[in-house]
Amino acid sequence: MPDPHIRLAVDIGGTFVDAMELDTRTNQVRFRKASTTPARPADGVLNAIAELGTDLSEVELFIHGTTLGLNAVLERRGGATGIITNEGFRDIFLLGRGNVPADHMYDFTYQRPESLVKRRYTAGVVGRLDYKGRVVRELDPGSVREAARTLVEEQGVRSIAICFLHSFLDPSHEREAARIIHEAYPDVSLSLSTDIVREYREYERTSTTVLEAYIRPIFERYVDELETGLAERGFAGRFLIMRSGGGSMTSTVAKTSPTHTVLSGPAGGIVGAAYLAGALGRDNMLTFDIGGTSLDACVIERGSAVAAYESQLEHFPLLIPAYDIRTIGAGGGSIAWLDRGLLKVGPRSAGADPGPVCYGRGGTEPTVTDAAVVLGYIDPDRFLGGNMGLQADAARQALTEKVAEPLGLTAEAAAAGVVDVLLARTVGAVRQITVERGHDPRVFSLLAFGGAGPLLAPLLAREMGIREVVVPFAPSGFSAWGMLSADIVDDFARTVMATLDDADLDELETLYKGVEADALASLTDQGVAPADTVLERQLELRYLGQEHSLMVTVGRELRPDAIRTAFEELHHARYGHTMGNRLQILNLRVRGIGRTTRPTLGEPAPGDGNPERALRGHRTAYDVATRSMVPFAVYDRDALAPGDRFTGPALVDEGTSTTVVPSGQRVEVDAHGYLLVTLEV
Prior knowledge:
With 681 residues, the protein is an alpha+beta fold.
C-alpha cells in the first residue's frame, strides 16, 4: 500500500459543506461541495468526501472546521447543564453584568434571552479562596456530594460546570470537587474552569465554563460519529479540528475543549488569508467571506490577523482566543422581506433546508441567491458546475410576488434593490473594522471568498474606493484551503495583575517557564516534534485606570523599557495617542505552535494576454455602474491564464462561484492564476 500523501480539509457552512483535497506529491488541489445536513451534520461531511471520491486510506491528515458548537447554543440543543460554585454565589452566571445590548439601549421592554442554565440547576458548596488564592475555608466533600446528588438525581443534569471564586490562582478545590463527583457519577461530563481558562473575572470565566459544559456532550457525539464514519471508509491518519483563534488541535483535545471550535469555520479562511498576505506581498488585507447565511470580515494587518482574547456567543462572554471577526446575517440564503414598506435583507436565512426558492426544495421566500439569478449573475444551468440546476422562473416569481409587486417595481428593479440593501449592510460591517478603528480601507486589498464573496466584493470595492479585490482559486472553498495551512496551536494564560514598574521580573520569568512547560506538554501530546515547536510570549497590558487592554509580544528577555515602547507604538497606531500613566499587566500568555507544512501556491503557465480563449459568450446582467441590464462578457475561470486582462462589464464563472465585474473596473490574472480586480484609471 502506498504511503498516505493526501491532505483533506472539510468546512461546514450554513448551506454547503466544502471539501478540498491536496496531493502533497503533486501539489494538485481538487474541490467539491455537498449540501449541509442540519439534522445529521456528519452525513454532510461524509457526502462531501464521497463527492470528491477520495481514497481515505491515502489520507494522512483530515482537518475540519465546524460551527456545531455555535449552532448548539443558538438553537438551544446542548445537554442539560448544571453549575457548582461557592456557597452564596450560585447566581453569578444568571446575574451576569446586567448590561443591555447597544441596539436595545432605549428599549424599556427588553428582556434578556433565556439562560442556558435554570436556577434550580445551580448549587453552592462549602469552601472558599480569597483574592490572593489563600484558603479561607476548606472545601467540604460532603457538600460537594450533596450538590452533585441534587443536580444529577433530582434535576437530571448530565453535564456540570465547576467554577469557584479565585480558582485561577489555585485550582486545587476545583480538581478535588471534580474527583469527588466523578467517583459518584462517572458518566456525568465535568468541565473545570481552570482547565479551560486560568484568568480573573468570575462571571466571564463561569460563562466560558458553562458554554463548554453545555456543548460538550453534543460535540463529543458528533466527533465520535464522524471518527467512526471516517474509519469505516479506511481513514487511519491524523484528525485535526480548527480553533476559533487560528491553528488546529487534535480531535481528542477538541472533545475536551469544544468552546475553542465555535468559530472554527471562519477561522480557516483567515488563516489562509494571513498566509496569502505574505505570499502575495500584501501586508494589509481585508477578508471578505460571504457564504450561505453570514458575512464574515476581518483585518489582516502587517501580515497578521487581528485577534482578541474575549469573544461573545449571543450575549454570553467567552474567554478564548478568537479572530476579531465582524459577522452579520447576510449571505446567499438571506431572505429579502418587507417591513412596513421598507425592503430588508436578512438576518433570517433560508439555510440549506429548504434553501433559496431557485433550489426547488420547497423554499417560498426570495433570497439574495434568487436575486442574483434574476439579475443574470448566476447561470442556472451551470450552478455548482452543472451538478445542481436552478429554477430561474420560480426565483423570479417569488421575488415578484413578495417584493416587486408590493413596491410597484419590476422583478429586475426589486432584485437590484436586494443587492443594494445587502451592499449597504456590508459597507457598514467593513467600516466597523476599518474606519472606526483608524484604518483607511483604501490602502487594503480585499480578499473575496465564500460562494457569494466574489459576486459582491467588486461592488463593495467600487462603493468604498478599495484599491484591489483578490479572488483566489476556488473561492467558495477557500476556508477549507486555509485549513490546510493551519499549524497546531494551543494557548495558555495566567493572571498577574501588577504594574509593569513594580512587577518582579524573576517571578514573571518563573511563571512564563511554568506556562511554557504546559504548552510544550500539550503540543507533545498532540504529536508535534520538538523541531517543529515554537513558543510565543505575550503580555496583556493597559494604562493603569483604563478598561481596555492591548496584547504585546515580548522576547525571551523581559525588558520593561522595550515592553512599554512596544505597547505605546501599538496604542498610538490603534487610538492615535499615548499617555504618561503607568502600565498594568493583566495576563501573561504563551501560544504554543506546532509548525506544519503549508501548501505552495501554484504557478500555471502564462498566457498571451488575450482572454478570448476563455470567452464563453455574453449574458444580459445588471450593471451597478449604469443601473441597467446590459450585455456582460462571460469568461470561464479555468481557461484564463496568468497575464490575461479584460475590462467590465464581465462575469467570471467557475461553477461554484461567479465574480461580477461592473463597468469601470478591470481584471488581471496574476502569476498564481488569482483574479485582481481594480478600478480603471
